[in-house]
Amino acid sequence: MTKHINDLNRQCREMKIKALQMARSTHFGAHIGGGFSAMEIMASLYHVANIPSMRNPSRDRIIVSKAHAVLAYYTALWKNGYLSEDELDAFETDGAILYGHPHKNPDKGIEFSGGSLGLGLSYAVGVAKACKIRGFLNTIYVLVGDGELNEGIVWEALMSISHFDLDNMVVVVDNNGYQLDGPTHEVMRLGNIESKLRAFGFDVDVVDGHSIEHLVKSLPQKTGKPRAIVANTVKAHGISFLENNKMSHQCVLSQKKFEQAVDDINREYHGQ
Amino acid sequence: MDNKVNVKLLSMLGQGGSAFGISLMNIMNERDDIMVLSADMSAPAGLDKFKSAFPNHFLNVGIAEQNMIGVAAGLADEGFKVICVAQACFITMRCYEQVRHFAGYMNLPIILVGIGAGLSLQFMGNTHYALEDVALMRTIPDMTVMAPCDSLEAMNALEYAVSSGGAAYIRLLGGTGITAVHQAEYDFGKGKPVVLSDGKDVTILATGAATSRALAAAQALDRDGIACTVVDVVTLKPFDRAVLDSCRQNALVVTVEEHRLAGGLGTIVAECFTEMNLDVPLLTLGVGNDLYPNPGFYQYMVEQCGLDAESVAIQIKKKLITLK
Questions:
Q1: Is there a contact between A160 and B56 if contact means CB atoms under 8 Å apart?
Q2: Which residues contact A29 (CB under 8 A, 6 or more apart)?
Q3: Under CATH, which number does the domain A3-268 receive?
């Protein structure tokens, strides 16, 4: 494996341990499942995106529409120098800047205030169109969840991305197969996401969403069409007692469970 | 604009035709950052001329108001001045949450223009009437809410909204052949209330389509010896409560609006009365909170709601009798 893949894997391990500490510290519990399905995606996004400065208008954009992925988002922002460890440690305390859904804060690398599902993708269409009008050659990356695809506005936005020929957009679907109430096929069957996105005019790649190697290869490709990447993931990936368990959506970690989860992560990266 | 306006032409063009066919074209001479978005409603709004002159400044998002507001937000956040146009009922209700999120929470200065407000869509039926739009939009922090009473005022409202730099909702009537309330250019300021006639007995605060009928009602009352001040309240939010100071000496204050009583001008004024400790009787006239009016021609619609000039005058007289 090349050096940057090794570096990113190491980074993911640190993100996950920090995310567990953040989750452990919360009073009401954190969105562990949807955070841990997106760890490799967030790390890879910040690796491939060209963001010289948040003040640079032609920077690539990373817009997190799946806003409850904050454990992955905030820890990736930390590893990329936007957030300090102190800021992460203050997660979900009174008056802190980091809470359950991100609030737009360019100084901290946060492009968009999320929380209401589907809105980030629609907003990103406007950003992508604006960048096209200005003649920028940048890329607008948007992370959406598979459960989020239930929202009607997502399909309105997808339709418009294709209609406006926004080939500067890459929509990444964190396809972890679960939403709050249970498996997506039980709650609201999505069918074949890949063929639905193709039918909406996208070039679609299907990748292992926990493989840094696959993600960093697929993300930066340009095909002259809007792109979607279906990243197949596991909800609460790497935490043995929470994987494929709907309880992982938002849960409190006891000290014992926290230690068990840390052990799981350390085992996963043993020897790397 | 020249002080002498062609009132007849503006009336014929309607509010949309005047605002988008004249004002917006003037605005385009001065700025290059305008983007107009429509949810498949550009032709009825009077945008045809704009679209053919400035195709790169126009986006049709299809019949998808929610996405329209999201796209507008992205463009606005990148520095464009965005005007969104759709029917008043849909641009405020179908996408209320998007407006709350982007214009409110993210504080993006999007301008919403709702056409066909109030009862103006007549035979389209209750799905198409906008009778709750003001109530909804005034809950969005920092959003200006305006209901111009005629074509000239619609032009002034759009020009002000574009220049002010904040989020705004402008409620426009449908169709053409709008009755002109203002016969010549006047000082619009920041959308301050305009006193249309002076009288010591009753103050009638009117907004939007109801303004011309409130004026006609006042003229009828004047013939019966009841002198009315009529105020054109173009800006519902922020509401200029200074206009209420002079009401303290009146026998009665009346609000007239083509909107449900819940949440519109009547509610706004009642809130001010409470906060200002005003001890003056208040009569609020609007569309009943429990009423789904029967579709029909416009005159039939306003009569059902008691909002034609004659009904307004009668209700004011009845109220004055109970106060004696």
A1: no
A2: A23, A250, A251, A252, A253
A3: 3.40.50.970
